[in-house]
Design a protein that fits this description.
By secondary structure, the chain is an alpha/beta fold. It folds into two domains: 88 residues, Transcription Regulator spoIIAA, CATH 3.30.750.24; 224 residues, no CATH class. 72% of the residues lie in helices and 8% in strands. It contains twelve helices and five strands. It has a five-stranded mixed β-sheet with strand order 1-2-3-4-5, with helices on one face. The chain starts with a strand and ends with a helix.
């Protein structure tokens, strides 16, 4: 046993146990002690470290880089975040001349990316399973669910998104009517602009663009809220108090999306049809009565159902992606911003991919 001011170092077998304070006052003596460590050291235990500053983190990172396969365990969240920050701030070694990657290296890089993507997909599937299991438990034990939280998130997700969704859909209807009229007038088929507007909005654009707006607006909000709680260790406090974070954080948010996104899709459909009817009236002279008659006669009700069937799946995707990204936030603001951006990009990309899959499926079954 050796004592270095307020730092105690105990080496037993292949594990180095540190306790006390590893700070700028003790780092010099610690580095001298680290230099005499045996080469068979495989683990450093920081469970008893009370204080750690950047100098101590630098010493640990240097020791870890010097010894292969050295694992640091027992570190608190603050210590892990500090070591990660110090490692990112350390200067990069002198870059070697770039060499052309071989075919094996390219295949290896591609394989690593594929494995990383599969792992990310499995994590999302795991969070989906957590939500479904908590939803089943909520059905069996309704008293565990907080209805007030659901109402609050319904307001945030649905009610406050109505203006932007309605305006976007109205403008999309106007653009479709204007562009369609320009093309169809060349063939004297202006009346078919009603079919163009109805099928495009009811079947695809209404729910898709609504989901994209909700993904950008809500997935980022979910990530920021849950990530901020994780940074302030509120989620750990919830577990200490015996509260299930999934039941209290995931279920109300995702369930609110499941309830409100179909309603937002209906609002988008109505606003888009209204915008298209208005533009068709002004540009082509198609009266509202004629527009309504053509809409009822030439548009199948299945187009409405096809659009609304997608809404729960899009809502599930957006909610799971946002909650998953929030739980990946580390204890620094940079991580929060990065995960928020990743959540928006991932949610929008996943929604578009899911819409493409639905389009192929409905085309195959003839709907």
């Amino acid at each position: 046993m050796r004592e270095t001011d307020q730092l105690e170092i105990d080496q037993a077998g292949g594990t180095l146990h540190l306790s006390g304070a590893l700070t700028v006052r003790t780092v010099t003596a610690a580095c001298k002690a680290f230099a005499d460590l045996p080469s068979d050291l495989r683990k450093i235990d920081l469970a008893e470290i009370d204080r750690l500053d950047t100098a101590g983190a630098w010493a640990l990172i240097g020791l870890q880089d010097r010894m292969d396969a050295l694992e640091i365990t027992g570190a608190r969240n603050e210590a892990e975040s500090l070591m990660q920050t110090v490692r990112q701030a350390m200067p990069d070694p002198e870059s070697r001349p770039e060499t052309r990657a071989s075919l094996v290296q390219l295949v290896e890089a591609l394989g690593r990316r594929v494995i990383s993507g599969v792992g990310f997909f499995l994590q999302l599937a795991g969070y989906l399973g957590i939500f479904l299991s908590r939803l089943a438990r909520m059905i069996r034990h309704p008293s565990e669910f907080k209805l007030t939280s659901l109402v609050h998130h319904c307001e945030e997700v649905g009610f406050k998104a109505v203006p932007i969704v309605a305006l976007m859909s109205f403008l999309i209807g106007v653009v479709l009517a204007f562009q369609g009229s320009v093309q169809l007038q060349q063939f004297g088929a202006e009346v078919f602009v009603v079919d163009l507007i109805a099928i495009s909005i009811l079947r695809e654009l209404g729910i898709l663009l609504t989901s994209i707006i909700v993904a950008g607006r809500t997935a980022s909000a979910f990530t920021a809220a849950i990530g901020s709680m994780k940074m302030r260790e509120e989620i750990d406090a919830m577990r200490t108090l015996g509260l299930d974070p999934a039941m209290n954080l995931f279920v109300p948010r995702i369930l609110a999306l499941l309830l409100m996104l179909p309603i937002l899709g209906l609002i988008a459909n109505i606003a888009g049809l209204f915008g298209g009817a208005l533009m068709a009236w002004l540009d082509l002279g198609i009266s509202p009565a004629m527009f309504r008659t053509r809409l009822v006669e030439g548009t199948s009700v299945w187009h409405v159902f096809v659009g609304l069937i997608k809404a729960p799946f899009f809502a599930m995707i957006i909610g799971v992606v946002g909650c998953h990204a929030g739980m990946q936030v580390q204890s620094n603001a940079e991580s929060l911003g990065r995960q928020t951006s990743n959540a928006v990009v991932t949610a929008i990309f996943a929604v578009i991919v899911a819409d493409a899959v639905f389009s192929i499926f409905f085309a195959r079954v003839g709907i």
